Amino acid sequence: MPVRILGTLTATGHAIERARQLIPEHIALSRAEPGCLRFELTEDDQTPGLWRLDELFADQAAFNHHQQRTRASKWGRESGGMVRDFTVTTED
Fold first, then answer.
1. Which of 11, 27, 33, 69 could form a disulfide with 49 if both were Cys (CB 3.0 to 4.6 A apart)?
2. The whole model's pTM is what?
């Protein structure tokens, strides 16, 4: 079953610019992962530092692989102070 992630990422202060620097590489690597069907991380037009997530992976194994790679990446190391609020669901 496909796994979908919907939610937000919020950065404040100097972390906003750091996120803007790191996000393009994170998106490119995530989209290139086997089993990634969609990976959208877009900054809100009205709220600086707010990004919306819409990710879809082929199955739980693909999602787990993404999580492991993310934790080991520069993004994972440097985005720890940013607030994440998301839900993970399976889709039929």
1. 11
2. 0.89
Instruction: Report the DSSP pairing between strands 36-43 and 83-90.
Output: unpaired
Condensed to tens digits (0 to 9), the pLDDT of residues 32-79 reads: 999 999 999 999 999 999 999 999 999 999 999 999 999 999 988 888
The tokens for 68 are 């492991």
Domain containing 73 — which CATH number? 3.30.70.100
Q: The dihedral of CA 89, 86, 19, 79: what is its sign?
A: negative
Residues 42-77 as b or e (16 or more Cβ within 10 Å = b): ebeeeeebbbebebbbeeeebbebbeeeeeebebee
Containing H/E element for 20? helix 14-32
Residue reference for tokens 């839900």 = 87
Beta strands in 1-92 (DSSP E): 3-10, 36-43, 50-57, 83-90
